[in-house]
Each structure stands twice: as C-alpha cells, then as structure tokens.
Amino acid sequence: MGQNVLITGAAGYIGGSVLAEFVSRTSGSIPTAKINAAVRSEDQVQSLSGLGVNVIQLDLSEEADVLETILRNDIDIVLLASDAKALTGSQSSVTTLFSEEGGWIYGEVRDTDSIFEKEKELGESHPVRQTNIVVVEEASRQGVASYNLAIPTVSDGRGSGECRKLSVSIPQYVRTSIKHKTVYRFDKDGVSSSATLVGGKSQCTNTNQSPPAAHISDLTALYALLVEKIIQQEPFPSGKNGYYFAMAHRAPWWDVMDGIAKSLHARGLVDEDRVQVWQSDKMAAEYLGFPELYVRAMGTSTGELVPVNANRLGWEPKWDKERFLESIDDEVQAVLELDTVKATVFDALKTPSA
C-alpha cells in the first residue's frame, strides 16, 4: 500500500526541486506514494496545481493547523524542506553548524559520530542546533523515526520547482556585487589550522577545508533515496544516529568569488574583475542582508566534515568541485534570468539589532 508523503516548503528552492524530482519518477517506490505539497500562499497553490499532487496552503507556525493537516491527510512521511524546522521523515539542517565558525569545538566530525550528544553539550544557542535537538527528542517521544539532512550553505544549480529556482548564498553575492559594482570576499578562504606532533614538538599546519557544497540535482537525489528506503521499510540509521551530511564536494570561496568577478566584469556589471576584501563582518552583513552573528560562518565556514551515512545508502553525487567551479558563469546567468524572489531563509535568524 502506498504511503502519504508531505513536502513542506514545496514552493521553495529545495522543497520545490524535491517535489519536481518526486513527480518525475516513473519507477521505484515513490510513484506508489501520494504526494502532498505544503505552501504558504494561494498564488503558490495555483502554481503547483497542475502537478497532480495534493497542494495544501499551510502556515507551519500554527501547530493546530499542522496537526490537523497531518491527521486529515493520513500523512506517513514528512519532509521538512522549508525554513521552519520531523512523524517519520527528514528535516533539513545546515553544515555550517559543524564548523568552528558555527560554534563546533570538536574538530573533525563524521555523520556517524555521536553528533546528537555533542549538540546537546553545546546547548541550544544556535536556532538550527536547537531544532536538531527538539526534532530528535520529540520524534523519540512520539515513537517515530527522524532523519537529519545537513544541507550545505553552498547549494548551487537552477532549481527544478515551479516557483523559486535560485538558492540563497551565491545569488545574494551576485546581487550584492551588481548593486555595489564590486565583488567582495572575506579575508579567509576556508583554511583551518591543525596541530601535529613532530619530533616531540607541536607543529601547526594549514589544511584546505573549504565550505561543503552540493548541486541541487544531487540534493534531490539524496532526498529521493531516503524516501525510497523509508517506503520500502529498509532499516538504516535514524534518530540520534540519523545525521546525513549532504556534502558532495567543497567550494573554495575565493575561487568562487574570482569566478563571479570575472563573469560580472565581462558583462559590464562590476567595475573590476578583481575581488576586494570586506572591511568588517558588519559591512558584509549589511551589504548581503545576512545576520551579522552568522555572516562569517556562512561566508568562510570550514568544517572538517566527513560524509559517511549518505554514501553508505548508495548516494552517488554527479557533481564535483571542478564541475562546480566551471559552472560559476552559469550561476551568474541564472540570477540575471530568474531573479524574482529576494526573500532569504536567513531572515528568521536575524536579531532585532541586525
């Protein structure tokens, strides 16, 4: 018997692309499921109405409405692909939580490590970390499985959904560069220091730990893989052990900014093809519209992340660092063609003073 799947944020970049991936499937377990898509507005309902799925207008902040929707539609699996932060299902976290800039103090981390216990030790100072903890604990109390996909801040590629087709990070750098006629970068390019013991003396070495990244097509493939295995009732790590780093490769920020500068300068949209350094984190936050508290983590995060769980499931990303860097001009062109949505999922993280 097919199961009922609810995708939240189905008009967004990731949620919409996941929905498109599911709708396009003609084999496997996903076509046997009834797909429900949660969106915020009536316009979004109309945009998705021709996909052959049950589109639901839903405010995820209204707990009673969410519960009623789940019960009325007999939902079995929930995919939290929205900026609100999982019944059996998966939620989207972010990989920056596991970087030094994101408050991670434990160094190298595999998604097979005891991450939940470490997040508990760090406390709930970060709103996404707080969500991770709440989801695992509440799912355990309710007797359902939960899975946590840590999504890279650098998610690239044109979305395949009906509404939002652009990610957040790179498009915002492109917009900001055009507005100020200059491409900026941070003074750090994702290089982390590590100490090794040589001849009885500690020596400090630098290792290239650029931010994790993944193409949108690889992300949707991972979501589909997880849901296929849930529907088929295959046993795989969940709850406290159910962390999955959706990391296909790394994205060296300075190379990315150089690519953006060359692309925009060739189009006459910035004054120089050289990249300048932000004068301060405050300047970066003001120009980009990102919360100052997290802007450095979002723009320089390193993180010694080692993805294991997703690969064990059989995830095989098609994109690597070289292919990503070669596509920067396409990323710029996508912003120029598709930039109709200026809202950012990071608005919810801004403090009143930001």
TrEMBL record:
InterPro entries documented for this protein: Epimerase_deHydtase, NAD(P)-bd_dom_sf, NAD(P)-dependent_oxidoreduct
Domain of life: Eukaryota
Any one GO molecular function term: aldehyde dehydrogenase (NAD+) activity
Assigned GO CC terms: cytoplasm
Span of domain NAD-dependent epimerase/dehydratase: 5-81
Official protein name in the record: NAD-dependent epimerase/dehydratase domain-containing protein
